Amino acid sequence: AQSVTQLGSHVSVSEGALVLLRCNYSSSVPPYLFWYVQYPNQGLQLLLKYTTGATLVKGINGFEAEFKKSETSFHLTKPSAHMSDAAEYFCAVSGYGQNFVFGPGTRLSVLP
Amino acid sequence: GAVVSQHPSRVICKSGTSVKIECRSLDFQATTMFWYRQFPKKSLMLMATSNEGSKATYEQGVEKDKFLINHASLTLSTLTVTSAHPEDSSFYICSARDPKLGQGPDTQYFGPGTRLTVL
Prior knowledge:
The complex is a heterodimer of chains A (112) and B (119). Chain A is built from no helices and 12 strands. Chain A is mostly beta strands. In chain A, a hairpin with a 5-residue loop joins strand 5 and strand 6. Chain B contains no helices and 11 strands. Chains A and B meet through strand 5 and strand 6 of A and strand 5 and strand 9 of B.
């Protein structure tokens, strides 16, 4: 079985500040991990993914995430928040032959 | 990259009517497609897995007679919400797997979603 938790349903940061969105997972198989962003009334846009190999993954729009197996975490970071980063962010876990399991989401607000 | 489209992007219907939502893979043939439902301010929940030419596999708690899924071709899957009621109002998102990229979960591409509002 797989599951995802995202600490903080709502995170607010100031423009230019560090963005940190937390994701912890559980998986009975080697995990594939994903971060998606969703803008209002739109579908999911893939930010980045971890499958195998390098544990620090760089994605679009300056986001990156690090897979830490010992901590079962895949936190999303961005050094400097921009107003356009305000959206809903979903962490998801899957595995070979497994379905996607999405976390509950974290709404990011960016304050001017 | 691969593109998955959905039509319509939003639909409003009266209670008791049926609504069909289409999911298309535009530049690849998808042997497997997935349907998700997203309640307001909630996460996505997998409803069913659709395999071309065979019956869909529904997740526990999803009424298969309510949510009819057809995957008649390698580029099209449809979700029909039958006898829709206000509680069926939701955001429905499909995804499609590109078999040329293997069977890993990173071979899935998500559609833009369909907003269904039942009055």
